[in-house]
Amino acid sequence: MCGIFGLISNKNLNIGKIALDGIKRLEYRGYDSCGVAFQNGKNFDVKKVSGKIEALQEKYSLNSLSGSLAIAHTRWATHGAPTKRNSHPHTDCREEIALVHNGIIENFIELKEELISKGHTFKSETDTEILPHLIEDYLGQGFSFKEAVVRTLKRCKGAYGIAVCYAKEPDSMIVARKESPIVIGVDKGATSYCASDIPALLPHTRSCYILNDDELAILKAGEVEFFSVNNANKKIKKKPEYIKWSVDDARKNGYDHFMLKEIFDEPDALRNTLKIPDNEFKNFAQELVKANQIYITAAGTSYYASLAGKYMITRFLGKFIQNIECSEFQNRLSGALERNSVIIAVSQSGETADTIEAVRWAKEAQPDIKILSITNVVGSSLTRYSDHYIVTRAGPEIGVASTKTYVTQVLSLGLIALEVAKLKKSKPSEDIQKYYDALTSTPDIIEEFLDKNVNSIRAFVKNLEKNLNYFFLGRGISIATAKEGGLKLKEVACRFIEGYSAAHAKHGPISLVREGFPIIFIAPPDETYKRLVGNVMEFKSRGGYIISVVVESDKKVTDLSDVTIRIPQPSTRYYNLFSPITFIPALQILSYFAALEHGLDPDKPLNLAKTVTVH
Ligand code: G6P
Hints:
There is one protein chain. This protein has 615 residues and is an alpha/beta fold. The protein contains 21 helices and 25 strands. The protein has an eight-stranded antiparallel beta sheet, with helices on one face. β12 and β13 form a beta hairpin. The radius of gyration is 25 Å and the shape is globular.
């Protein structure tokens, strides 16, 4: 939702540049306003703007500022419009406390009324601003800085990741988390850093402490101590995790946009995910085989990965799997969640509030339920609520619209499906091996596709520029691809898309088709192909402009199409089952170029945030 970054050092650093660079790397978390607070020897200089980080630099020339303590924030507005006044850092009445926050304080209205009645003056409409005022209040009652922060946090309901500084204790910074991520890096004896996510720390250190819920850390120059918010007198020992991602992994590597870089990262992301030990997938398969009922839940792109995964797993498991959007999970299953059920939760960030709430609610409603999760982020909240989890190896994904994390999610679900097949012996072992070979060749197929096809997609996207509406249609497992491909175009190119079942589209949506209306058919040569040919004809005969995604040897759909995008893969059932992985890059690339054609920034779609920590 928002990105926070802070540092404290015993050196006189180029603090403005480091702080702005820190939040720049977190811009994917929100980018509607931003701000930074620096220690100025007496209290804090707070600089904020409504708008992007470049505007902050332009207005205040912060790059040349030196110092040894700063906290910075890039915001995605929830409470209060994205104005300068509502942007962070927020301060108390005396401007001795400066604080940045990611999350939502749900009981802020009551707390604000209480503080106003005590004489506090508020400058913003945010929930966050109650935090520095409450800390000020406890300091006024004689509590230490740490105790004042702890008491404040204990009064708050909701989610927070915070970094807070106190002008009278300029040699320390306090950070804390509950349901909003915080990572800490320490350059021993010199500088300590905190951030909402790892990419912001990578230029400074690879060794990161991941703060858990209800933990608090006191950062001093080059050192850190950890405590529990619930027992703040007792220190907690924590071990740092070594992050293998390189600084370049988190940068654009010469590509114009993160989205394009991350699509080209897909073959490696898949190869790395294929290196995850088999027993991690086997653990999932064992739980699925034992389960009474199985649900799969997620949001956005992860939801469409789960749709594809459901098809794959069902094929070998022989049990019905129910897909439920995470935000509807509780509504749909209240009173109906059976014992001995399994929930697969899919979330690239592992922090999506609705996904976390779904699994937490399920665990409370039926304690013997098993939570199996797939995420891309080590130490994310979702992993902590899970009985088993798989962390995909896509590396950091900065583009707001998910690309490489999607293919690694579908790959992981495919690997689980094949472990199920082995356990259940639902196919002869030679067949399972052929499926496995097909799945492990997906990185090579995508690599070859990207090598050969990117320019031709760019060329035909130019001709599509005039269209505002599109259908994306498929049958069977390709409905997932149609919906995810459509979502990408919607997100980055701001076009209206209906991602739909090709068969069902004749019951209503077809009435929109006129001469030249673009329809994108996802047409792998699987068991649905023959009937899909009929669907293509239905749309073609009404004047539809047919774009199809097919395998290289395709003939029938190709003959009916105005344009084809050809995927270099064999036309066997072993490969077709994994077409959601190999067909999606074509649609991601199409969306990327469509965004450029429309003059939009594909990395920062309008109104979206990469990690949504509100319900
Ligand atoms: C937001 C993002 C989507 C993402 C969804 C789920 O809506 O804009 O791109 O698919 O959240 O995120 P998750 O981290 O749970 O996969």
